[in-house]
TrEMBL record:
PROSITE patterns: ABC_TRANSPORTER_1 (PS00211), ABC_TRANSPORTER_2 (PS50893). One of its GO terms (biological process) is L-isoleucine import across plasma membrane. Keywords: ATP-binding, Cell membrane, Membrane, Nucleotide-binding, Transport. Residues 10-257 form the ABC transporter domain. Gene3D superfamilies: P-loop containing nucleotide triphosphate hydrolases (3.40.50.300). The keyword NAD does not apply. Transmembrane segments: none annotated. One of its GO terms (molecular function) is ATP hydrolysis activity. This is ABC transporter ATP-binding protein. The keyword Membrane applies. GO terms for cellular component: plasma membrane.
């Protein structure tokens, strides 16, 4: 019988982050088990994206302990975090607009390549074979997220919802242990949100672990296994979606004490 700790993928505790006179995060922590969709919610300015940026190496924490899959890791730089096994998307779409959808996903896959610069320059057989494998995997991921037919289309000409899907495919190309999505439903219409929900369920069914920030509380409550709520950079609740919905501190944070 496996130990409960074997199921813990991400364990972060005691994160503090200050920007000048602003205390952005105060003693924030999170524990995510393998195979979960874990939600992070809170009102505007609650510190959700700041915490995301700390986890993924964009911001350096003032304090905090970080473990990924049972091993300490240091979120020192985004590319090192990607190598460690955490891939993310951003609130604002950050694709290579002039490249095709396939090329965008191939860029994500290169974090797992073994051939060096010389192999790429001189086109050794091993480098050519690896490039073929990267291209094949990129197409598989485009098919997986539902936009395989647009592989050769320039990214900037994809619809908004398909660009979001492309970002997820590119993140998946890194073979992440944790897929961190920062407001993937932002700007989507109802049909696109439904398709996104189905995609995230599909990703979970493959055994992936997802950390999700989202303002659409209804979407989060129907999708997440557990949720942490931040307010003013501090955690105020953690638990099952049903517990979060009934938590007085969460209700007050979103609706105000008068309600």
């Amino acid at each position: 019988m496996s130990d409960k700790s074997d199921q813990l993928l991400l364990n972060i505790a005691g994160v503090n982050k200050r920007f000048g006179g602003l205390q952005a995060l105060t003693e924030v922590g999170i524990r995510i088990e393998k195979g979960q969709i874990y939600g992070l919610i809170g009102p505007n300015g609650a510190g959700k994206t700041t915490f995301f940026n700390v986890i993924t190496g964009l911001y350096q924490p003032d304090t905090g302990t970080f473990e990924l899959d049972g091993k300490p890791y240091s979120p020192s730089a985004p590319h090192e975090v990607a190598k460690a096994g955490i891939a993310r998307t951003f609130q604002n779409i950050r694709l290579f607009g002039e490249m095709t959808a396939l090329e965008n996903v191939m860029v994500g896959r290169h974090v797992r390549t073994k051939q060096g610069v010389l192999g790429a320059i001189f086109r050794h057989k091993a480098a050519r074979d690896e490039e073929t494998a990267i291209r094949r995997r990129a197409q598989e991921l485009l098919d997986f997220v539902g936009i395989g037919q647009f592989a050769k289309r320039t990214a900037k000409f994809l619809s908004y919802g398909d660009q979001r899907r492309l970002e997820i495919a590119r993140a998946l190309a890194t073979d992440p242990k944790l897929l961190a999505l920062d407001e993937p439903a932002a700007g989507m219409n109802a049909t696109e949100k439904l398709a996104l929900r189905e995609l995230l369920v599909k990703i979970k069914a493959e055994g992936r672990t997802v950390l999700l920030i989202e303002h659409d509380v209804k979407l989060m409550m129907g999708l997440c296994d557990r949720i942490t709520v931040l307010e003013y950079g501090k955690p105020i609740a953690e638990g099952l979606p049903a517990e979060i919905q009934k938590n007085p501190a969460v209700i007050e944070a979103y609706l105000g004490g008068a309600h």
